[in-house]
Amino acid sequence: MRAIQFAEFGGPEVLHEVEAPDPVPGPGELLVEVEAAGVNFADFRQIGGFYAPPGSLPHIPGSEVLGRTADGRRVMGFTGNGFASKALITEAQAVDVPDSAGAGEALALLIQGLTAWHLLRSSARVRPGESVVVNSAAGGVGSLAVQLAKEFGAGRVIGTASRQDKRELVVSLGADVAVAGSADGYADRVVAANGGAGVDVILDAVGGRVFAAAQEALAPYGRLIGYGSSSGEKAPAVDPGVLTALNISVGGFWLRPLMSRGAMAPLAELFELTLAGKLKPQVGGEYPLAEAGRALSDLAGRQTVGKLVLVPSLG
Which of 142, 150, 228, 224 minimizes the C-alpha distance to 187? Predict the structure, then answer.
């Protein structure tokens, strides 16, 4: 099979296309012919050596795929080696995907869609009428969180994004307003966008100085939920004295450890909303498998919107 592999840690330049043996399914596993593989910021971090390294190098990255089994089922699921023309997924977590759903749109619901759902429902526990700020709102999680926040009854949704074209996209997806997301002046811009009042919920994947500034934009009883650190900046220590003085809460969310605890259940609702046209997953680009490095460079450089996928059939 064709696969993308890295033999040393580094940037996207360490990725190379190779011919590798077909994976052999063990008990409870399905072998799928990959139609599309999701590209995530976690892949960029893995090849850079920021996450726990794989058992041995060389390694095929990629954490999610959609494809067909030998008996014709179209399924998607989590994997450990998804940047390839064939991959293994766990049968118990395989999700059947209707033929009417685009591969990129369906994959957008797996990691990004579930993360957005749980950020709003499980972590922030957004109540009808509350104000919600979504940082990096043009990205994979953010673009879905904006739409879901409205669907779940948020009173005012504010998105942040780095460029004007991205802010225009965020508004087109349902945000009431979109502002620049840089750390300098962050709290002032967010509060102004909320009519001069602090906000109830902020969802943040940027980390660093933006995460620190977000605390100052919260209303009493406000909740700041972090779920990433795309800025690469060292996260500031959370000062309990500040939380007490402002009457705010800070939390975190990571999807992967929750997969064995029913975290995938909301996929049924996400597919229902998507097929009904109430949720529109954004596919920011389809790349040939051989151009995995370019896809990751574009993603890390914040040049994209929505979900990125690798498509082996493109060459």
Answer: 224
Take residue 304 and report the two structure tokens written for it.
């994209």
For 229-240, how does the pLDDT look when each residue is reduced to its tens digit (9 = 90+)?
888 888 778 889
**Rounded CA gap, 234 and 237, in Å?**
9
pLDDT per residue as tens digits for the range 56-79: 799 999 999 999 999 999 999 999
Instruction: Please report the domains of the chain, with CATH numbers, ordered by start residue.
Output: 2-97+282-314 (3.90.180.10), 111-257 (3.90.180.10)
Provide Rg for the chain, Cα atoms.
Answer: 19
Kindly give, in sequence order, each residue whose CB lies less than 8 Å from that of residue 268, ignoring residues fewer than 6 positions away: none
- Report which DSSP code applies to 111: I
Residue-wise pLDDT tens digits, 254-266: 998 887 778 899 9
Residues 81 and 22 sit within 8 Å (Cβ to Cβ): no
